[in-house]
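Postdoc handover notes: sequence design on the structure in folder B. Input tokens:
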């Protein structure tokens, strides 16, 4: 008889498993493509600048001190570190779900049943000896332990934990990507500050030159060699240059405060060596090969871990279609009198039960979760491929920019030299009345603009060096 019952239950279980296994809806999944071009510029040299630590890549001690401070005090970075802690706690929560839950329970109560209820009537008709009647009302005391456990037959809980691990690793890579961006932003702002300092120095020099020229024009007007128009034009140029001075001073304050914000402190002067800006030379950059981006770029690794988590979530959602097996057990003592509570075996009780549950009808919610998990997995594939493509394009753009800026800087430097010489020539010709005052004004203006452009090109060179280091995935290690 018992054997027949076992066979019947086994048959029911088999049929339910067969039904649920065959009724899982199909979905179209997408596989990520990890192939990248073989090289950036037809070079197979695997030497990669991204492997250099940022303290070795940047040699300015003032800049390195700023980066060090930012890595400790930047608020956004510290917020991200707490996100990592949250992701780590999620792993602990998912791990606990596939382990047995064990607890203790105690309680006390009193129960008074009515005379005309089924229990009250049965007690009244029972032949109970005098002095041994059931207490009325009936107290009850309980003390015991209990345990519940969902048997992870289909790996749903283990896959959920693995997905949590992947999300944790993704958050770590997200922090690394933020570190890379933070270092690059501080370095770019620092070089911008040096460029502004040098532009301010040029303006002050030009104001002195133009003021001297204005005095000469005033003397020539007194000698009736020029008109009042020439004096006014020279004076207007001096005023225009002075207004530029205040604009640059404001830009310096804003750039300093941007750096102060990044390093997590209130506004204060930024220590720097502005005189070294002219002698800065971008270091040699080695791009390596594109496949190294998959290991060096934190955002690519972050997208990869997100993809792994999304794939595991599909498995978790799929397991919801299958039966789940739960086991519960309890052991303890129960008595209507506290003095009998720990008296064994009379007050001892225990229980063991198993539950098998499988979804059969109205599984729309489970299907929706499954379809959504698969759609998110496809999203994660596209996001991964987009991240890889974006990283490759960033590196190609910055490598090309470094090459073109180097050529541009050489030409700008020659232009500045030619225009600087033309200022002296135009002034001498003007003094000897062999050149018009407009030629002097235009020459001074062109020389000022060319010097500004030379400094701007130098700044762009340094920014390109920082940006390609960032694009290659350097800085976080």
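Designed sequence:
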């Amino acid at each position: 008889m018992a054997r027949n019952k076992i066979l019947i239950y086994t048959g029911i279980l088999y049929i339910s498993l067969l039904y649920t296994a065959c009724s899982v809806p199909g979905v179209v999944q997408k596989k990520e493509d990890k192939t990248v071009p073989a090289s950036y510029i037809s070079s197979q040299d695997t030497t990669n600048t991204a492997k250099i630590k940022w303290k070795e890549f940047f040699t300015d001690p003032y800049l390195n001190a700023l980066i060090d401070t930012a890595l400790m005090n930047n608020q956004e970075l510290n917020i991200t570190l707490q996100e990592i802690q949250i992701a780590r706690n999620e792993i602990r929560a998912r791990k606990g779900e596939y382990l047995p839950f064990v607890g203790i329970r105690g309680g006390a109560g009193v129960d008074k049943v009515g005379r005309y209820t089924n229990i009250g009537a049965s007690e009244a008709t029972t032949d109970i000896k005098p002095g041994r009647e059931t207490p009325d009302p009936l107290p009850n005391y309980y003390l015991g332990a209990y345990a519940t456990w969902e048997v992870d037959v289909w790996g749903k809980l283990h896959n959920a934990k693995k997905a949590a691990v992947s999300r944790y690793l993704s958050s770590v890579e997200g922090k690394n990507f933020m570190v890379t961006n933070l270092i690059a932003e501080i370095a770019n702002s620092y070089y911008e500050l040096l460029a502004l300092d040098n532009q301010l120095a040029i303006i002050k020099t030009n104001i002195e030159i133009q003021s001297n020229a204005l005095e000469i024009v005033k003397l020539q007007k007194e000698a009736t060699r020029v008109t009042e128009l020439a004096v006014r034009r020279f004076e207007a140029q001096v005023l225009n240059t002075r207004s530029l001075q205040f604009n640059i001073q404001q830009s310096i304050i804003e750039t300093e405060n941007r750096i102060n914000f990044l390093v997590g402190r209130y506004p204060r002067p930024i220590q720097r060596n502005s005189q070294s800006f002219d002698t800065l030379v971008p270091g040699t950059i080695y791009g390596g090969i594109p496949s190294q981006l998959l290991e060096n770029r934190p955002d690519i690794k972050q997208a990869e871990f997100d993809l792994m988590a999304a794939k595991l979530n599909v498995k978790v959602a799929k397991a919801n279609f299958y039966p789940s097996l739960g086991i519960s057990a309890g052991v303890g003592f129960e008595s209507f009198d506290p003095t009998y509570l720990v008296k064994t075996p009379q007050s001892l009780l225990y229980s063991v039960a198993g539950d098998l549950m499988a979804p059969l009808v109205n599984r729309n919610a489970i299907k929706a979760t499954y379809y959504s998990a698969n759609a998110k997995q496809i999203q994660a594939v596209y996001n991964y491929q987009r991240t890889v493509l974006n990283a490759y394009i960033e590196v190609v753009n910055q490598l090309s920019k470094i090459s073109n800026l180097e050529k541009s800087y050489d030409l700008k430097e020659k232009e500045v030299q030619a225009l600087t010489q033309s200022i002296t020539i135009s002034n001498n010709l003007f003094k000897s009345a062999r050149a018009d005052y407009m030629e002097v004004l235009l020459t001074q203006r062109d020389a000022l603009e060319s010097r500004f452009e030379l400094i701007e090109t130098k700044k762009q060179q340094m920014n390109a060096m920082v940006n390609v280091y960032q694009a290659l995935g350097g800085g976080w290690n």
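Context for whoever picks this up: The chain has a mean pLDDT of 86. Don't rerun without checking with the PI first.
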